[in-house]
Amino acid sequence: MHSKIVGTGSCLPERRVDNHELERMVDTSDEWIRARTGIVERRIVAEGEFTSDLAEAAAREAIDNAGINAADIDLIVVATTTPDLVFPSTATLVQHRLGIRGCPAFDVQAVCAGFIYALDVVDKYIRTGASKCALVIGAETFSRIVDWTDRTTCVLFGDGAGAMVIRADDEPGILSTHVHADGAYKELLWVPVGVSTGNAAVEAGKAFTHMKGNEVFRWAVTAMSDIAVEALRHNGLSVDDLDWLVPHQANVRIIQAIGKRLRLPPDKVVVTVAEHGNTSAASVPLAFDVAVRDGRFRRGDLILLEGFGGGFTWGSVLLRY
Ligand code: UT7
């Protein structure tokens, strides 16, 4: 059995925050942000709007596009670093709102590589026959763990969600998944407080993202180039066989550097970072849905998805659409 993507969906919050709005909040400029990151605007949730709201809307769209009923879903996995609650999981919140009962539903936490990890898990459920129709979502309200007075991070992130319905099929589908992690790099990209550390900063609403940007940058380029080679080699394929690359959308310069290393023409790379910013676990499924909707992806295309995030965590999914 293989995992086949039969429907996709996405959701972005209504509010657009462009670089000029950030110029009024911190010592930055539209010029710097565009030149160093490629980001032009990002979407930010409204007060009272949560990760589960974005996840539910993206899921409903994916279910519609797949032409299935919510009742057909037998597995729900949500990749998120910004769940509504400590527990229950965002996946169970979405399950309830979709009117589904009884099927397994859980969250996966691998930050910006989260959606790749979620697809890796879902693919294994499908291959073993444990799931026939899975809903997989990447959803984040990263704006809630960003210090809006810190110019080195607040210009980078945005909120959003992307979803896929994945069905068991005789033909691929997902050809391979490869996921990796190395906890030695924790302090290069992290929120250094949490529930168990009992830090007062959490209660004070100061659980913020800290990043050593240029070190993460170098790592991201190397890891996302290497995993492309790993995935293609594993399948006896070459870069020339690839129709599309959908990398994690953190910085257009990272994406360009990966393309250059792989010798992949820029028109084969899906780039949405200008409009979305870095939406962490939502970035890959959001970009995927954009390219489905604008007609770039055709059935049979060979597509490589890549993620890289805090931990570090990183991974790839190679698939025939
Ligand atoms: O999603 C997980 C993966 N995340 C990433 O992959 C992010 C990786 N890192 C990056 O994308 C880039 O490193 C950044 C966009 C974060 C930073 O770009 P950079 O070209 O690496 O700049 P830098 O950190 O070396 O900073 C250069 C200068 C510094 O000033 P000095 O020390 O040279 O005087 C910064 O203080 O730019 C300054 N700077 C800013 N200036 C205006 C940093 N942020 C800003 C800002 N506006 N927003």
Gist?
The chain has 11 helices and 13 strands. It has helices spanning 19-23, 30-37, 51-66, 90-97, 114-127, 151-154, 200-203, 213-234, 252-262, 273-276, 283-293; strands spanning 2-11, 15-18, 41-44, 75-79, 105-108, 133-141, 159-169, 174-181, 189-190, 210-211, 244-247, 302-309, 313-320.
Could you please describe the fold and organization of this structure?
With 321 residues, the protein is α/β, with parallel strands linked by helices. The chain folds into two domains: 2-170, Thiolase/Chalcone synthase (Peroxisomal Thiolase, Chain A, domain 1); 175-320, Peroxisomal Thiolase, Chain A, domain 1. The protein is 33% helix and 25% strand. It has helices spanning 19-23, 30-37, 51-66, 90-97, 114-127, 151-154, 200-203, 213-234, 252-262, 273-276, 283-293, and strands spanning 2-11, 15-18, 41-44, 75-79, 105-108, 133-141, 159-169, 174-181, 189-190, 210-211, 244-247, 302-309, 313-320. The strands form four sheets. A five-stranded mixed sheet has the order 1-7-6-4-5, with helices on both faces. Strands 8-13-12-11 form a four-stranded mixed sheet, with helices on both faces. Strand 4 (75-79), helix 4 and strand 5 form a beta-alpha-beta unit. The radius of gyration is 18 Å and the shape is globular. The two termini are 15 Å apart. The mean pLDDT is 97. Oxa(dethia)-CoA is lined by residues 28, 32-33, 36-37, 112, 151-152, 155, 213-214, 216-217, 220, 250-251, 254, 278, 308-309. Oxa(dethia)-CoA binds next to helix 2, helix 6, helix 8 and strand 12.
